[in-house]
Amino acid sequence: MTDLTSLGVKDIRDGVRGGSFTAREVAEAFNTAVAEAAALNAFIVTTPDHALAAADKVDAARAAGEELGRMAGVPIGMKDLFATHGVQTTAASHILEGFEPRYESTVSQKLWDAGAGMLGKLNLDQFAMGSSNETSYFGNVTSPWKKAGSNAAMSPGGSSGGSSAAVAARIAPAATGTDTGGSIRQPAAFTGICGIKPTYGRCSRWGIVAFASSLDQAGPMARSVEDCAIMLGAMAGFDPKDATSLQMDVPDWEAALNSDLRGKKVGIPREYRMAGTDQAILDSWEQGKAWLKDAGAEIVDVSLPHTKYALPAYYIVAPAEASSNLARYDGVRYGMRDLPDGVGLQDMYAATRAAGFGDEVKRRILIGTYVLSAGFYDAYYTQAQKVRALVARDFERAFEQCDVILAPTTPTASFPLGSMNEDPLTMYLNDVFAVPASLAGLPAMSVPATVNADGLPLGLQLVGRPFDEQGVLDAGLAIQERAGFTAMPDKWW
């Protein structure tokens, strides 16, 4: 039999439907792979019984001749930011350790309704705050990739580092991620997989632990554009429980996939050629232009003049919203409580948050509280929101000249764990190419392009008009077909 863990979403779904193998066989194979890859620390909690129960349900439905869902028989990893009924949900933070929701997030419920099963809850940067998956209370996630000739542990990216590591290591065919300022796209680029952040509002935020509510968006991470299109179709849809949810029909992105880009224009933003970007990244960008031109697209130059202000604006807006969202963790209603003898309510708040939050979370709360405080609100937060509007307007004007934008996903390839911990600002710069699309709420995707001289993956980013996930996926498919990216990490775990 085919090694089932080498298959992606489409091949598993079609194989189960066609009777080539059972959903239980798939779940058993991936459960075993997850157990064998404990050294990656990709999972905080494993749920093999959930995967098997979902598989048995699919097998029974097939035997009864019932119609199967678009994710039928596919076991996935669930980022531990999504509430899962009766299964610990922590956001990788000590303050939520042991919390078992009595409800299911909308996105995860849609996936279970589509026939998917859960292999476990995936590790991440604490409260999704980080770019290297080193801020988790439950320990670092290690990328399955290594530099050629080195045994140094490499970053899988963040915050969705558990998701990217699991998919790249073939211990999950796909995983959910969330993207606030690049947290799907950057880890996808670091590990040689695909990941798409849809238009803000495409996927419900209900039941997802909040970081920055005006930016957070769920999306799929998988090994191919087709698999992302399938999974996104299962995740998306209007949700009356989420006030920001888009009341729009969900297109059949998989059925409409088309890599013929004749008549399409691809914009190349001149401002994305930044100092400090690796030459290998710039070379892959040039190669990406050639691939899209080969697919029939016309390459045009565009300008996004406020790009240089996007990152500083993001690191005002996102921490400000985080400061507000994380105020709910006070030791009163749920989560951990630190109550020293003889103290009052304010002391309990302080002790609980001091013990429960990690350093990066505290840093962002402090920044956010500062920029929202009297005397600084207009100087920082109001100005950042004005910049955000200008960034969005830049994209609107660019899309008058092109259909999709091509850019690097990250300025560098993956880096060794621990190499940037002493310099938060350098770490924040990892998101420099990803943040503008997040501020504008646009669909954006990372697709693997090539590997650098160290044998590490490099990704290319595609950004589309609002609601045009199809255009992004089509351009991604064109790159995928021409790149022929088949590199895999050597199994060391």
Automatic annotation (TrEMBL):
SUPFAM superfamilies per record: Amidase signature (AS) enzymes
Swiss-Prot/TrEMBL keywords: ATP-binding, Ligase, Nucleotide-binding, Protein biosynthesis, Transferase
Xref: InterPro entries: Amidase, Amidase_CS, Amidase_dom, AS_sf, GatA
Every Amidase domain range: 28-473
Enzyme class: ligase
GO-annotated biological processes: translation
Annotated catalytic residues: K79 (charge relay system), S159 (charge relay system), S183 (acyl-ester intermediate)
GO molecular function: ATP binding; glutaminyl-tRNA synthase (glutamine-hydrolyzing) activity; transferase activity
Swiss-Prot/TrEMBL catalytic activity: L-glutamyl-tRNA(Gln) + L-glutamine + ATP + H2O = L-glutaminyl-tRNA(Gln) + L-glutamate + ADP + phosphate + H(+)
EC nos: 6.3.5.7
One term under GO cellular component: glutamyl-tRNA(Gln) amidotransferase complex
Keyword Flavoprotein: no
Highest taxon of the lineage: Bacteria
PANTHER family in UniProt: GLUTAMYL-TRNA(GLN) AMIDOTRANSFERASE SUBUNIT A, TRANSAMIDASE
Family, as annotated: Belongs to the amidase family. GatA subfamily.
Subunit description: Heterotrimer of A, B and C subunits.
NCBIfam families reported in the protein's UniProt record: gatA
Protein role: Allows the formation of correctly charged Gln-tRNA(Gln) through the transamidation of misacylated Glu-tRNA(Gln) in organisms which lack glutaminyl-tRNA synthetase. The reaction takes place in the presence of glutamine and ATP through an activated gamma-phospho-Glu-tRNA(Gln).
Protein name, entry field: Glutamyl-tRNA(Gln) amidotransferase subunit A
Organism in which the protein naturally occurs: Erythrobacter dokdonensis DSW-74
Taxon lineage: Bacteria, Pseudomonadati, Pseudomonadota, Alphaproteobacteria, Sphingomonadales
